[in-house]
Structures are given as C-alpha cells and as structure tokens.
Write a structure and sequence with these properties.
Strand order of the largest sheet: 1-2
Mean pLDDT: 85
Structural class: mainly alpha
Number of domains: 2
Number of strands: 4
Order of helices and strands: HHHEEHHHHEE
Helix content: 40-55%
Radius of gyration: 22 Å
Shape: elongated
Number of helices: 7
CATH topology of the largest domain: Arc Repressor Mutant, subunit A
C-alpha cells in the first residue's frame, strides 16, 4: 500500500488521495468487511503525512459509509452486525430475537450468565451489560437468587 511509487503524496487535498487509495483497497477486498484498517499512526507513516491528514481521509470514508470507528477497535470496514455493534449489543440482540420469536416465552428462565459467556465467548461483564440492557427495556426481570426471566407482558 505504498503511495505513488514509494514517494510521499504531495499537492492539494492529499487527504482525498489517501481516501482514494484506501477506498480502492476496500473495494478490492484488501481490507475485508469487518476487518480493521491500520492505525492512524501506521497510515501516517506509510503515506508520509501528518496524522491529521490521515484523520481527514478516514473521515471521508466514514461519511461515505465505508468504515465505522469503534472504540478500542479502531477504524473498521463496514459490514455485518459484529462490525457495527459492541459485543454486549450482539448478545442482547440474540436474546431479544429469541424472545420475539417465542423461543423464550413469558416467565421462561434465561440461560445462566455462565452459559451465555460460553455461547458468545464473552466476559461476565459483557454478558451483564447485555442483560442490563434487556432489563432496562422491560423484556426481562431479575429475581435475586433465582435468575432472570422473560417478563410476562413480553411473551
């Protein structure tokens, strides 16, 4: 991904040239959907430009809907729910869908935290964030010492 025969990009609106190069690489599959782009620092070194110039190029791609910026993941090529959502949102979406499809009926006990952790390869904190979101939505209720259950009104 060397810029113009290994020479630094020059001229007016260099960020647009960087955006063009990255756009082509996304289109060619060099950076697949769900894959992370190199860091801003790596890109600035590669293109031999200031980091702010790289940020402007990435902003263009973000505005075009080609990438998303996810905290702790960086700039990721858009595509699929895993790219667009944090892990706890994916878990909450899965449970929410099971409730709406009737797989988890009113009064049914939800799988344990341990079971959800194993199924989704997630930490206890991540699973608890997902469950908290469902509780705030009124889809599930927690009973101390008994577990979590689908609310009667949602079944």
């Amino acid at each position: 991904m060397e810029p113009q025969n290994g020479r630094p990009l020059t001229g007016w609106r260099v960020y647009a040239q960087i955006a063009d190069v990255l756009r082509e690489q996304i289109a060619s599959g060099h950076f697949p959907a769900g894959g992370a782009l190199p860091s801003e620092l790596a890109l600035s070194g590669q293109f031999r430009v200031a980091r702010t110039t790289v940020r402007r190029a990435l902003a263009v791609l973000r505005d075009e809907g080609l990438i998303v910026t996810i905290r702790s993941k960086g700039h990721v090529v858009k595509g699929g729910i895993e790219t667009l959502a944090y892990r706890h949102e994916v878990i909450a979406d899965d449970l929410r869908a099971q409730i709406h499809r009737g797989e988890l009926t009113a009064g049914a006990m939800l799988p344990s935290e341990a079971s959800l952790r194993q199924r989704h390869s997630a930490s206890r904190t991540t699973v608890r964030h997902a469950l908290s979101a469902l509780e705030r939505e009124g889809l599930i209720v927690s009973e101390q010492g008994k577990g979590r259950f689908v609310c009667p009104a949602t079944g």
